[in-house]
Amino acid sequence: MPDVDRARAWLLTVDGAPQSYVDLDDPTHLEFEYARRLGHVLDTLARPGRPLDVLHLGGGALTLPRYVAATRPGSRQDVVEADRGLLELVAEHLPLPHGAGVALHAADARAWLETAPADSADVLIADVFGGSRIPAHLTSLAYAREAERVLRADGVYLANLADATPFAFLRSQIATFAAVFAELALIAEPGVLRGRRFGNAVLIAAHHPVDTAALARLTAADVFPARVEHGPGLRRFTGSAVPVRDADAVPSPEPPGGAFGIG
């Protein structure tokens, strides 16, 4: 069951694993490393302050919707979260500011995506974990095609993934989205990419080049520096991995004990 630390800065945990961090006094503060990397991508997608239509698959404590509402006022955002109890808890204890432009939907992420209008989102952010694993039905080629359908021609897909060497899951996800989108990039800590530990990686997919130079500068300057892989380097990392069919889809690997523990 979710637990919330009662303070101005709120840490939401699910079954002991940290899921979201919200600073009620500063919605632009992104505590978790992967959230800051998603924030960097959001900051580079369009001119500063320009409103965006954003679809979030996975809600948590609505950290990124709050960030978008604060940095890009006037944005329209939909948040799809399967855990109705979590949405109710967040609405009670961490209500969104008036006029934030965020609509909440208690539904399965893929089922909701399959009924969403085509060409309706500038950005789709997938941050869905069932416990500590990404559900299998959000990892397949059919799912990737639905994401591409909902995005506009200049839209961008972002996903928070997690894996460790030998990276069978991560490589399969890159191969899956490379079969649908023309341009891909990956952001992760060098130690994770070198196979030294389990960790998060942010996948970026689009039909147009993303500003990898700006992202590289932003992520390299972070408290926990990260690397941006794209082009030939990302293709080498992907190796012989192939797209995932629904029939072959599996959840992301179980994190080792303490991988996402609270320090």
Describe the structure concisely.
With 263 residues, the chain is α/β, with parallel strands linked by helices.
Number of strands: 11
The coarse overall form would be globular
Based on secondary structure, the structural category is: alpha/beta
The amount of beta strand, in percent, is 25-35%
**CATH C-level name:** Alpha Beta
What is the straight-line distance between the termini? 20 Å
Order of SSEs:
EEEHEHEHEHEHEHEHEHEH
Question: Strand order across the biggest sheet?
Answer: 6-5-4-7-8-10-9-11
Radius of gyration: 17 Å
What percentage of residues falls in helices of 4 or more residues? 25-40%
Q: How many structural domains?
A: 1
- Output the CATH topology: Rossmann fold
What layout of secondary structure does this protein have?
Layout lengths: L1 E3 L4 E6 L2 E7 L9 H12 L8 E5 L5 H9 L4 E6 L2 H10 L8 E5 L2 H7 L5 E6 L14 H10 E13 L4 H11 L4 E6 L1 H4 L5 E8 L5 H9 L6 E4 H8 L25
Parallel strand pairs: 4-5, 4-7, 5-6, 7-8
Antiparallel strand pairs: 1-2, 2-3, 8-10, 9-10, 9-11
Helix pairs in contact: 1-2, 1-8
How would you portray this structure in words?
- The protein is α/β, with parallel strands linked by helices and 263 residues long.
- The chain has a single domain (32-241), classed as Vaccinia Virus protein VP39 (Rossmann fold, 3-Layer(aba) Sandwich), CATH 3.40.50.150.
- It has nine helices and eleven strands.
- The chain has helices spanning 33-44, 63-71, 84-93, 109-115, 141-150, 168-178, 190-193, 212-220, 231-238, and strands spanning 2-4, 9-14, 17-23, 53-57, 76-81, 102-106, 121-126, 151-163, 183-188, 199-206, 227-230.
- The strands form two sheets. An eight-stranded mixed sheet has the order 6-5-4-7-8-10-9-11, sandwiched between helices.
- The two termini are 20 Å apart.
- The mean pLDDT is 92.
